[in-house]
Structures are given as C-alpha cells and as structure tokens.
Design goal:
- It is a single chain.
- By secondary structure, this protein is α+β, with helices and mostly antiparallel strands.
- The chain has a domain at 89-115.
- Helix content is 36%, strand content 17%.
- The protein is built from 2 helices and 2 strands.
- The chain has helices at 2-19, 30-52, and strands at 92-101, 105-114.
- Strands 1-2 form a two-stranded antiparallel sheet.
- β1 (92-101) and β2 (105-114) form a beta hairpin.
Length: 115
C-alpha cells in the first residue's frame, strides 16, 4: 500500500510539472508584471509572518565578570634593579617603564632613568 501511494504521488507530481510548463517571456504583458509583483509581496508577507511568529530567541548566556585590573603599586615603589646591572650614573635612578619590544609590543622593563 505504501509503495503504491508513493508511486501515485510521484506520478501526480510529474503530471503537474508538465501542465505548468513555463510560457515564453512577453515584455508587452502588463498583467504579468502586476501579477508577479503581487505574488512577490504575498510570498514576502507569508514568509515574514512565519518568521515573526516563531519562538522567541534564547536568553543570553551568563558571562563571567572581567578579571580585576593589574596593580603596579604607587609611583616610586619600584623593584630593586637586578644585581647584574652596573652602578648608576649621577642623577639617575632605577624605574619601571613601558618600552617597545619588537615582535611583542609594549612590555614593562626595569630601566635606568636619568633626569
């Protein structure tokens, strides 16, 4: 029974396809243009109402709060320089400064700061 039903539906589809063969294009047909325009508007209204009446979007997921900002301490509270550095020049001190490191961007480094 099921196979015969599938065969009948297939034959009906082929019959409808042969009956609705495309007609030659006619630029003089004003009614064809109006029918096509109204058909497009109707199809847009049907599809638009189907989309608008769909289920609501899911609620947004929970996002963790951003990490706290880094704390570098008050100005003047710098780390002592590494022991491999030589003695300071007169009027200079050690300080942390942002310097450009090629390939990495800005990095914090202990540098000799002179006035």
């Amino acid at each position: 029974m099921r196979k015969s039903l599938i065969a009948v539906v297939g034959a009906a589809g082929i019959g409808l396809a042969t009956l609705s063969a495309p007609a030659p294009a006619n630029a003089q047909c004003l009614g064809c243009a109006i029918g096509g325009l109204l058909g497009g508007v109707a199809a847009g209204a049907i599809v638009g109402s189907a989309i608008a009446n769909g289920p609501p979007p899911p609620p947004p997921g929970y996002y963790y709060p951003p990490p706290p900002r880094a704390y570098y301490g008050p100005p003047g509270a710098y780390y002592p320089p590494p022991p491999a550095y030589a003695a300071l020049a007169p009027g200079c001190h050690w300080g942390h400064r942002r310097i450009w490191v090629e390939g990495y961007g800005y990095r914090w480094r202990t540098v000799q700061v002179c006035r």
